Sequence to fold (55 residues):
Amino acid sequence: MATKKKPFVKLQCFDCKRVNYFSRKSKQKKGEKKLELKKFCKWCRKQTTHKETKK
Ligand SMILES: [Zn+2]
Fold:
């Protein structure tokens, strides 16, 4: 059996578009809804909205 790939998502600062965080996607049954988190961005030096992005 091949090992399953863990779904990884990048969290991208909505302000500066830099990827600051990585997250493993939790089992969301709500489907298509994208992850959105308030995180501190060291580039913006403030809390910004970080959105899930793919590759
Ligand atoms: Zn930023």
DSSP finds no helices and four strands in the chain.
